[in-house]
Amino acid sequence: MISPLVVTTPGAGLFEITDQVAEVVRAAGDADGLCTLFVQHTSASLVIQENADPDVLVDLQAFFRRLVPEGDPLWTHVAEGPDDMPSHVRSALTQTSLSIPVAGGRLLLGRWQGIYLFEHRRRGSRRRVLAHVR
Amino acid sequence: MISPLVVTTPGAGLFEITDQVAEVVRAAGDADGLCTLFVQHTSASLVIQENADPDVLVDLQAFFRRLVPEGDPLWTHVAEGPDDMPSHVRSALTQTSLSIPVAGGRLLLGRWQGIYLFEHRRRGSRRRVLAHVR
Amino acid sequence: MISPLVVTTPGAGLFEITDQVAEVVRAAGDADGLCTLFVQHTSASLVIQENADPDVLVDLQAFFRRLVPEGDPLWTHVAEGPDDMPSHVRSALTQTSLSIPVAGGRLLLGRWQGIYLFEHRRRGSRRRVLAHVR
Lengths: 134, 134, 134
Hints:
The structure is a homotrimer. Chain A is about 25% helix and about 35% strand. Chain A is of the alpha+beta class. Chain A has a single domain, classed as Jelly Rolls. A five-stranded antiparallel β-sheet of chain A has the order 1-8-3-5-6, with helices on one face. Chain A is elongated. The first copy, chain A, starts with a strand and ends with a strand. The model of chain A has no long low-confidence stretch (mean pLDDT about 95). At the A-B interface, β3, α3 and β8 of A face β4, α2 and β5 of B.
C-alpha cells in the first residue's frame, strides 16, 4: 500500500513526521513488515534523529548550513536562488528514502528516534513523501 | 524479482540510470510495490538528484571532490591509488541502496528527480547495480 | 520476518556485522528477496564498506572525526557529553537503514563489501539492529 503524505514547511528546518507515518502504518493493519518512505524532491530530504532535545535539531541544521554554505564560489547552478544548490547537496548527504520495520501496526523505532523531513529551501515548500507499507 | 544492471562508466561523474531502472520496473509488471537498488561496490554509489539543469551534477561532483580530496595527509590507505580512499568516503556519504515506490509498472519519482550512479574512481569501471522489484 | 541483532561495541569505530546478518538471511530460507537493516539509535549508524584492507576503516573513521569534531563551538547540545552531538551528525551523514538483495538464502553483496555498524560514541554501547527479510 502506498500513501502520499503532504508536509507544508514554513521555511528551512527539520520537521517531525513520525505521527503522520505512524498513522499510515496503523491504518495498513497488523502485519509485520516494512515501512519505506520516499521524498519526491531533490531540495528536501529525510533523516531519523533524536526527538528528545530540540537543540540536536538546531545543531544539525547549523552543521549542514556551514558545511554546504550559500554563496560558495564553487556553485555554478545559481539561477534558482542562492539556497538551491546547497539544498541539493544537503539532500545528497542525507536520505531520499528510508525503511523502518513494522510490527503489529507499529513502527519499530528506537526509544529516542523521530522521523524528520529536512527542508533545505529558505522559503519552505509543499513537500510530498510517499509511504509504502508491506 | 532481482535484475542486474551493468553501468560502464568512462570516468568519475554522475551517470543517469533512470531509464534502465524504469525498464526493469515496466518488465516486472503492473503491481504496486517498491523498487530497491543496490550498488555492489564501495567506490561508486547511488544518488537521486535533479535531472533538469546539468550544472547541478557538475556542482555536486565539485563539492564532493573538495570535501573529500585526493592527497589528503589523513589517508593511510593509498596502495590502490590516490583516488581510492576518497572514493570510499564519498560512497559512505551518499547511498549504497535506495528504494523508490512503484505503481502500475512506473517509478513514482518526483517531477525533477533522476536516479544516478555516482562513479568516484577517475578511470571509471564496470559497475553492477541490482534492482529488486516487488 | 524481523530478527533483532545485538552488537556490543567497546568504543567508537566500525564493527563488521556481515556474518550475523548472513546467518539471519540463511535462517529465513531460500526465497529471493530483500534484507533490510535498521539501527534503532541516533548515535550509531550503518555503512557498507570495503572489508579487504582494514586501513579503509581507519581512514573512514578519521575523516568523520575531522569533519564533525568534538568541541566545535557550533554545538549547543553538550549536556550528554562532547561526543554526543558529533555522533548524531555522523549518523545523519551515513545510514540508519540499508537494504541488500538476497537470493537462495545469501546476501548479494559485492566481492569487497562488508556491512558495518558505525559506533560514534567513545564509550561504546549495546546497539540493536533489526533485520527484516522478505
